[in-house]
Specification:
Helix content: 25-40%
Strand content: 25-35%
Radius of gyration: 20 Å
Number of strands: 13
Largest sheet: 5 strands, mixed
Length: 252
């Protein structure tokens, strides 16, 4: 699951991942590593580089540029620019820790995915046919917790239709009881994700759109009278997602 993220801006085309002290490693294409740090070559000053930090599960997006152990003696992993001006840290298990680094474009990265506590199992997110999403690297072959899976689906705003339709199907599967269907927390997660699609979308508007998804799911479940309801059909999820995205496009 996601445990941290930041947009890193620096004067050099590099993001450094590892122990808190600054690395003196030179920038290499696509990475350089020395046992305590990984220096990832990025697009530099032209734009910020988004770095996300994951534990137990992370998207298998882009290409793997590092998969090895780093010595994190103090149990702290740090993400920083080369000068240490823009940085964030997170507590992890102390000692030698397996770290996986993936990037969208080796040598010119704009997105960097950093994983700790991962396994080697490649899993799939629930998706709608014809609207694929990246696979995920997980700690075990056991099915992801639904909230963790929803977080992975809603990690980014690229492929918005695929992500929203998949989220609708996943949330519709919940067994949370008549009064709480669908889960309020999960609908709130969708609302917050929707806000990232438009600068004009306020919390109130996003909550209203997410509530309309919830109403649509309840209507589908109630309309299944006499039939076992497991989840909404894929075409229903696509219709709900399309309507929401169309409404967001019209918000000004």
């Amino acid at each position: 699951m996601l445990i941290g993220a930041a947009d890193v801006v620096g004067t050099h085309a590099a993001v450094i991942v590892g122990a808190p002290e600054l690395s003196l490693l030179p920038v290499a294409d696509p990475v350089a590593a020395d046992g305590t740090h990984v220096v990832v070559k990025t697009r530099g000053q032209v734009a910020a580089t988004r770095v996300s930090l994951w534990s137990r599960a992370m998207p298998a997006a882009g290409q793997s540029v590092f998969d090895g152990e780093l010595d994190l003696v103090d149990g702290v992993i740090c993400v920083t620019d080369a000068d240490g001006w823009c940085r964030f840290t997170k507590k992890v298990a102390p000692g030698r820790t397996r770290v996986v680094v993936r990037v969208d474009d080796p040598g010119y990265a704009s997105r960097v995915y950093v994983g700790v506590g991962l396994g080697t199992v490649l899993g799939s997110l629930g998706t709608v046919p014809g609207l694929p999403l990246p696979d995920v690297i997980v700690a075990s072959a056991e099915r992801l917790d639904p909230v963790d899976e929803l977080g992975l689906i809603l990690d980014e705003h690229s492929s918005a239709m695929a992500r929203l339709a998949a989220a609708v199907v996943l949330v519709s599967r919940q067994d949370v009881g008549e009064e709480r269907y669908p889960g309020r927390f999960e609908i709130a997660m969708i609302a917050e994700w929707l806000r990232g699609l438009s600068v004009y979308l306020t919390n109130e508007l996003a909550r209203g759109l997410a509530d309309s998804i919830a109403a649509g799911l309840r209507a589908e479940r109630d309309g299944a009278a006499g039939r076992t309801f497991e989840s909404v059909a894929d075409d229903v999820a696509i219709t709900l997602a399309s309507n929401i995205l169309r409404q967001i496009d019209s918000v000004r």
